[in-house]
Amino acid sequence: MVGSKLSMPPGAPQLRRADADAIEEGARRLAAGEVLAFPTETVYGLGGDASCAQAVQAIYRIKGRPADHPLIVHVADVEAAAWWGDLGEDGQRLAAAFWPGPLTLIVRRRAEAPDHACGGEATVGLRCPAHPVALALLRAFARLGGRGVAAPSANRFGRVSPTRAEHVAADLAQHAQGELTLVLDGGPCEFGLESTIVDLSRGTPVLMRPGGLAAARIEAVLGRRLGRRDAQAPRASGTLAAHYAPHTPLELVETPALAARIATLAAAGLRVAAWCRQRPASSALAHWEAADDDPVRFGHKLYAGLRSLDALGLDRILVESLPAEADWDAARDRLARAAASFAPGG
Ligand code: TXA
Ligand code: MG
Q1: 14-228 falls under which CATH superfamily?
Q2: What is the DSSP secondary structure assignment for residue 167, as one 8-state letter?
Q3: CA 207, CA 217: separation in Å to the nearest integer?
Q4: What is the pTM of this model?
Q5: Which CATH class is domain 250-340?
């Protein structure tokens, strides 16, 4: 095998710089039904041929994701998207305005399109990513006859999404059992938060997940307000209350309450990390991480920051609540879900 590293433990994926050769190799592996990880401008994806039942099943296995949670199908362009689903007028306009880019469109699936990645829904989630490596991979795969690449974020189900190739290897190597052989390393992801998801399959366009693309820009193109998620929406992992969670319990704390919360936890013998804009005066803090006051920079660092705070092995991570402005929607959404899996006691 080209460039295989003898020092890697058996079954560990090969991390390979995403140059032209590696991308071609990746496309060949996709065409052979294998699963690989690749960078996008949002987060790393765990990809396989969306038309191949075995490849899609391998993704579900490696990720530990329930079979009824659909995967996004990544495509090289609008024409490829139209093969999978009916974009309709709204979808055509949004794709023309924002693809390639961090926008996923949920549309009605065409009857002929394979449904392996669709979790039993009559719809399909479609995205054309802007990352040059992702686009080159999708184009090379299309030249080999591929229709699209099913790819969830390349983390274990419910956990923090990966924004670097090393995160993917750290999360998935022990669960992949040799089924993930290649991680294309394209460096850190530019946005660092997942794509914005808009559901176009139910009449009024609905914002399913705030993300890399601001809702206001989508509304400007559509010329109307997006609906917000409701209880009838299909079950979608990124929309579950508890998600994106580190192992260390995480609490969101309003700025004025930070000092008291640190004191309470420290008095109970807990070792606490705080991720907040100003260094707390408290000497009881085990670790302080300065939080960015710019939403783009904050989003870019969010997942890597959660991972490094988690790696400290402390008892609690306190994160200062984020501003209420729309620019912060995506980061606020992810942090609320990261905190939701933990209900703080005293
Ligand atoms: O930025 C992103 O979107 C990244 C990169 C890799 O493209 N992908 C990503 O995938 O975040 P994932 O699977 O972690 O989150 C996609 C979300 C899930 O909540 C999934 O259930 C939902 O999209 N989804 C996908 N297809 C859907 C469909 N047909 N109907 C409803 N929800 C869908
Ligand atoms: Mg995810």
Answers
A1: DHBP synthase (3.90.870.10)
A2: H
A3: 12
A4: 0.94
A5: alpha beta
